[in-house]
Amino acid sequence: MSRALLLVDVQEDYLASSGLTPHRGALVEQASRLLARCREAGVPVFHVWTTVRREQDRRMPHWRRSGRWDCVLGTPGHAPPDALAPIAGEEIVHKTHFSAFDDTSLAARLRARGVVEVLLAGVHTHACVRATAVDAYRLGFAVAIASDAVASDQPLHADETRRWLAARCARFAPGACLVTPGAPSLPVAADVPVLPAVVLGRDAVVAGRPEATLPHEAPAERGRVLWCVPVADAAHVELAARHARQAQPAWAATDASERLAVVARVATAVEAARASLARRMAIEIGKPILDARLEVEFALALIDAASRRAAEALAPPEPAPSPFGRERRRPLGTVALVTPWNVPLAIPLGKLVPALLYGNTVVWKPAPAGSGVALDVLRLLGDAGVPRGAVTLVCGDHATAEHLLSSPLVDAVSLTGSSVVGTSAQAICAARRVPLQAELGGNNAAIVWSDADLDDAALKLAAGAFGSAGQRCTANRRVVVEASCADAFVARLRAATDALAWGDPLDERTRVGPLVSSAACARVAGVVERAREAGATVWTAPSHAARARDLGDTGAYRPPCIVRCDDPSAEIVQEETFGPVAVVQVAADWDEALRLLNGVPQGLVAALFSPSDECRASFLDNAQAGILKIGSATAGVGAETPFSGWKSSGVGPPEHGAGDLEFYTRAQAVYVDDAPSRG
């Protein structure tokens, strides 16, 4: 099939849009890779630009109403970044409105080159990319959109657009798959196992389609594929959801004491499997073995805490009927759980256990890299006596998750994932009007004030930033330091970072393991390099840098680095890197420290290092996060208290604590008046 690439509006004025998602730097990098692949493959490239001329004002009416003069010919804002500039032989298409086909000659120019399919990338997904896709479809072209090379300053609208287009006229896929379709991301040996697409309960397995699988590479062993994850489709999801829904009435009718007993047996089963679970996490996601063991302990603590709360909530007898009404709590029904790979045991059990205790059944969709642990957990649930159908599992990717969230057989959704995933979940759940509980990560910061114990702060923050290679939602991403102690603190932070053992996740001494994949390594490297190019100072311990040259060839290893960035709007400050990166920001005074602390969209965890009562009181009053910590890094939380993200870090009731009863049950008012009426 002959195809052409249309790069839509990758111009500086559009790239400067406030709230562009993904960030400008990430978009330009991905679009540049797509452009390079197309050039290498001989795919024709058309650069589509919005072009405004002051001498001939043909701006869109809404631009005129707002007095907006963007993309004016000859201005810096009209031009693309150098990495996306056209070269000889590539055509430029000028437009004044949304669609590239505003230039009526474009269709003829494409057909003259024999093009039957257009590949789209650029901004904005919800506007110009959408209009171009619809027009291309209307004119008879097949349409493909590079899912990793489009962006929008209205992410919710963009997400709705993606689903709308995918259902009608366009296919979405990563740019590499569009240019070289069918090329495997990893070579897969014939004997590599394929996990089941659906598990309906103990020993009830539905095989996946071998042609629709995702290979999972061992993080510490480049080239070793551990297994392939099948991509469950809508029919698979419907099967799992139907079984869970059919099992729910009987499970809800089970006496609360029996449900508590089943969960107690789950805890016993997890306890007995602690060594194998920890080892699996170390091998399959690269979590250092000591951290993996701590995760097993945390999972057990979550089970215990949820059980004690449920025993209290379910034990009291219902009050006598009253004509004035009374409240009772009822299960939601069938709950969809979408869980991440980085905490593949504790997060799922922290959701599964309260869901079951309060009488719900579950359809569970784990992240691909966490699917191996998920199958172990499902086996343990069966061993503990969880009835068949009470917990079903579907494996797959984001499309599988969207099928699940959209299913009319699902009554509520609990999700842990990225901000982008959360946006999609909010839109789907809002359309269906079902409850959503979402934990969406954190760009967490700690303030280090001049009166703090700098040695103590540096040791704790190095561990909090780089433990598990920074792949924790509570990791200490940023450190806001008072200017008067900044140099002294950074020197100590460097020393503490240099002392962290880095390498093999199965080594008992390791504190910083590999990232989950080579793709994650490349993504983090890109963010750091763009920060360096923009003027930030990047420091890597010499010992780590030397070892990186050896480890980098063996697995998804990236050394811890410290980045000093003075631009609060920079990508590396505003975006959660989810890697071994600590960003240092310097504050001249306390007010600026609070502004920097709160100056990101997320609000999961914030921390303070200072003995000052005044600073502590101000921090507790003004930090915009759901979890506040004094005297420790942001990483790590307890099992007893609510886990609650503020701002874009959370939606709906918190996980754990009082959030369990609040989310996994719904209130119902009952009025009973048996008194005879007086006539």
Task: Fill in the keyword field for this structure.
single chain, 679 residues, alpha/beta, Rossmann fold, Aldehyde Dehydrogenase, Chain A, domain 1, Aldehyde Dehydrogenase, Chain A, domain 2, 3 domains, eight-stranded mixed beta sheet, seven-stranded mixed beta sheet, 27 strands, 40% helix, 20% strand
Structure, explained:
This protein is α/β, with parallel strands linked by helices and about 675 residues long. The chain has an 8-stranded mixed β-sheet with strand order 8-7-14-13-12-15-16-26, with helices on both faces. The chain starts with a strand and ends in a 9-residue tail after the last strand. The mean pLDDT is about 95.
Q: What is this entry, summarized?
A:
With 679 residues, the chain is α/β, with parallel strands linked by helices. It has 23 helices and 27 strands. The strands form 6 sheets. An 8-stranded mixed beta sheet has the order 8-7-14-13-12-15-16-26, sandwiched between helices.
Give the termini separation.
83 Å
- The order of strands across the largest sheet is 8-7-14-13-12-15-16-26
Number of helices: 23
The CATH class label of the largest domain is: Alpha Beta
Percent helix among the residues? Answer: 25-40%
- The geometry reads as globular
Query: How much of the residues is beta strand, in percent?
Result: 15-25%
Q: Give the name of the CATH architecture of the largest domain.
A: 3-Layer(aba) Sandwich
- Whole-number total of structural domains: 3
Stretches where pLDDT is under 50 for at least 5 consecutive residues are: none
Number of strands: 27
* Oligomer class: single chain
**In terms of structural class, how would the helical and strand content be classed?**
alpha/beta
CATH-defined fold name of the largest domain: Aldehyde Dehydrogenase, Chain A, domain 1
Largest sheet: 8 strands, mixed
By CATH, the superfamily of the largest domain comes out as Aldehyde Dehydrogenase, Chain A, domain 1
Radius of gyration: 27 Å
